[in-house]
Batch of 2 targets.
Target 1
Amino acid sequence: MTARDAAETPPAPPTLRDVVAVLNQLYPPALAAEWDAVGLVCGEPSQAVRRILFAVDPVPSVAAEAIERGVDLLVTHHPLYLRGTSSVAATTAKGRVVHELIRAGIALFTAHTNADHANPGVSDALAAALGVTELRPLDPLPAQPIDKLVTFAPADAVERILDVLSAAGAGAIGAYSRCAWTTDGIGTFRPNPGAHPTIGTIGRIETVPEVRVEMVLPRARRDAVIAALLAAHPYEEPAYDVIPLAERPGRAGTGRIGRLDQPESLADFVDRVRAALPATPGGGRYAGDPDRLVHIVAVCGGAGDGYLQTAAGAGADVYVTADLRHHPASEITAETGIALVDMPHWATEWPWLPDAAARLREALGAAGFTVNIEVSTLVTDPWDGRIPGGGSR
């Protein structure tokens, strides 16, 4: 093969294993609720993936669309088998979906509550579609527990220790790595009989210039970081402290709360929601005085009935979500005055699809892969029409 041939040869497509690894980085399975079913449903990890379709629901019509488009991977938000199953026989609608996808060589992957909780995730995409900014989680998950490691070492050993501890998982702060604080000081000790000191003499008090090193680390990496420190430190018995740091709210969690650039009437905000979200036969509904001003906005993609009180308690003027029930909605508006916008479940989650597709495309591109990633616009809201009011009383 000539250099020109090599240059013109398209790069190999990613495998399903490659794509799943990236999806798990974007939407970590550890963020999923305990009851949830996320991850790879069917598919051969070594198969090539050239074309991907994102959709909300793994229903028969979406499976048919995936087959018609000739995709290799279907990524859905909702699980196919949320409560598990002992059979995938084609005697049920879900079983037929599995058979049709496998027969067509299409893998199925689900990112559900892990995508809900991720930052950015489903509710970030909903908030962005509505023009809501300065976002924070409505119901944050606890941040990853963090420790601080403090140790002391001769100056000529510090750089190696920093490298080793960083490789073991210490020193990561946001987008920065190998973060540490160092300061000079004096260490003193006396080697006792049986010791094998790197510096000093048995029975004699020693005074040595040392550097104090401080690094943060995920608590889950505590054992690995300490083991790395003991292996890299020149002293026979290095001194160190591990200090648990106070827990703090994380950036991941359910829903988001933020603000509009300028306050606007609830009527105008309802128009904003109508224009931003895809239309469904069932449409949406709202509660509140159309003339009242709204500024602080809470959102929760999908069923957000359980976070009504949370949204009101957080100071939201209006809460946008789906699947609100009669009694809780009536009670919260009477008690707090919060306005409600109840949209179809599918419509509140659909904005995540193009957002997730763009993030996956970017991540695969950074890894040197070019994949055709598409978004389904097929409306899979279960309702086919809305019955207007106005009958007999």
Note: The chain has a mean pLDDT of 94.
Target 2
Amino acid sequence: MKVNIDMGAAARGAAAELDLEELLATRLLVQGNSGSGKSHLLRRLLEQSAPWVQQCIIDPEGDFVTLADRFGHQVVDAARTEAELTRIAGRVREHRVSVVLNLEGLDVEQQMRAAAAFLGGMFDAERDHWYPVLVVVDEAQLFAPAVAGEVSDEARKLSLGAMTNLMCRGRKRGLAGVIATQRLAKLAKNVAAEASNFLMGRTFLDIDMARAADLLGMDRRQAEQFRDLARGHFVALGPALSRRPLPITIGAVETSARSSSPKLTPLPEAPEDASDLIFTPGPDETSPILRKQPPKPIPTADLLAQLSRPKPAPEPVAEPVFAIIDEAEREAGIDTVLREIIEDPDAAFRSDAVLYQDFLVRCRIRRVPGEPLPLSGFRRRLAVARAGVDERSGGEAWTTALSLSEALPDDLQGVFLMIARAAVNKDPSPSDATLARAYGTHSARRARRLLSYFEERGLLVVRTDFHGRRVLAFPDLNCETAPGHPDAPDEAQRDAAE
């Protein structure tokens, strides 16, 4: 069904229409400096498309909650646990309810975690509930930053992974991302690159104007026009908007934001008792806290008497209110989930953030008891699992290999442990293709650089026998691999193909 959304006016009074069905398949990116009219544009799009498609708005400032009174959106307060937000998102998709996730009042890291949990719940919904949803993310640079900021690395990766899933893999699940940002330079490139429709508003920095012009297929001389755009004026391009750059003016909206641009108002006349008004506390204000006097010194005899008293008997340990978690059952469940992930032939080429989201979903499906592993613990367990040896077993050489791997970056631990396992078991040296798969790449040259990196760190020695086969020796483990040809095919990928 073809539905055209009226976004306002184009050149010469023509209507600026947006093909909603095409938008659901190709996604939209909006850029504009603060005050350029991005929120007004998003509100116009949401109001015009509300009768036709389910909507989900990730609202960091609480500006879009006013849609609830006019269009029936449900406001979800984000001041909840991440697990609760994930379950709510699943029910939102099941019952096809338009919602506004209100993140107002949370700090930046809490907003990132809440948005990641909610988007993850929508992304992981059951296949029967993959109905079309317009997912609008305002201030997208907060949730998909191009560089690390003051928030923790774990929160940034969770949020970035959720945004990447929305823009890269969400289309097949019915999720159509509409993201708005103040600056393209602040937005992660892999998130921005998935949009096929663009609405570029006023911007002043040369780097942002150049990127906007490049996305719209304009030359650098035409990029200067982005400085002169008025509030609410944008240049549109994309299969859902126009095949050529088209200046448009966004139309009026029915609802308004709770916050607005500041307006100048005249100052009141200065009162004569201004000093009393400022420094005298009002009747409803609490009285100032009085500084406490220091306690009187205790005599030495009393201190000695207190120290000589016998210690009271310890209180009996109270019975736990909740059932004690069986750690063996929990570890067995985690090991099972990790094996399922590793058996997927495409898992080696996915990022840790994506695999961690998959891990959490599988743990919920298998009802693994206890708190889920943190991202750092998951990376460590995944690296050991990929090596094929249990971290809690193995001989002295394997224990030494585990200790050496802790000093390496997270993405290199799995490769090092896989080579160490081959040396401990006297297996042939892994080929370049096998090393590349373990590192998550298809480049054999990059795999050889990994061996050079390990050799520079003094962890192993690479030598070649008289038949041109490679041997990897570990001085600290007092063992080495059997000879193996570096150009041999990856046996894991060959077995999967067969």
Note: The CA atoms of residues 27 and 195 lie 5 Å apart.
